[in-house]
């Protein structure tokens, strides 16, 4: 009886090894070879120098000369697409000596419902990733009003060229 039980355990162990462990070992070997290939690929790549990375970073930002034509036109197109009204805003350029980026501050009074204002801001920030939303203030004349008046302060970071 103990010999039969031992043979049963031996047979079970062999089935477990070939059905589960063996396939896992094969998969582990494949993953190890893939890891070696990736490490070889990464080791052979040229690592960009800090100066190159910084140059690439500054090339991402649009030039100051594109502000009136491209930037503000895109902002107004986005507002029209999202059914919000932009009133006359305040614009100011902030340049600091020695800095490579110029800050273009915009204060926009916006009228619309909350959902459309939020969609407008979301789309504007996606389409213009060089912009930041600094502050937003909502005001409603009466509780029953659907239309909100918002004061949005944004900053656009532009290349000083």
Summarize the model shown.
The protein is α+β, with helices and mostly antiparallel strands. It has helices spanning 2-44, 50-59, 67-81, 114-127; strands at residues 85-86, 90-94, 101-112, 131-139, 148-159. It folds into 2 domains: 1-45; 55-159, Ribosomal protein S6/Translation elongation factor EF1B (Alpha-Beta Plaits, 2-Layer Sandwich), CATH 3.30.70.60.
Task: Walk me through what this model shows.
- The protein has about 160 residues and is an alpha+beta fold.
- It has 2 domains: about 1-45; about 55-160, Ribosomal protein S6/Translation elongation factor EF1B (Alpha-Beta Plaits, 2-Layer Sandwich).
- It has 4 helices and 5 strands.
- Strands 1, 2, 3, 4 and 5 form a 5-stranded antiparallel β-sheet that branches.
- Strand 2 and strand 3 form a beta hairpin.
- The longest helix is centred in the first third of the chain and has 43 residues, at about 1-45.
- The chain is elongated, with a radius of gyration of 31 Å.
- The model has no long low-confidence stretch (mean pLDDT about 85).
Question: Are there runs of 5+ residues with pLDDT below 50, and where?
Answer: none
Number of domains: 2
- The first-to-last residue Cα distance is 91 Å
Q: Average pLDDT, to the nearest integer?
A: 87
Major sheet summary line: 5 strands, antiparallel
Overall geometry:
elongated
* Number of DSSP E strands: 5
**Any idea of the CATH class of the largest domain?**
Alpha Beta
Give the CATH superfamily of the largest domain.
Ribosomal protein S6/Translation elongation factor EF1B
The residue fraction in helices comes out at 40-55%
CATH hierarchy: architecture of the largest domain: 2-Layer Sandwich
Please state roughly what percent of the residues sit in beta strands, choosing from under 5%, 5-15%, 15-25%, 25-35%, 35-45% or over 45%: 15-25%
Number of separate helices: 4
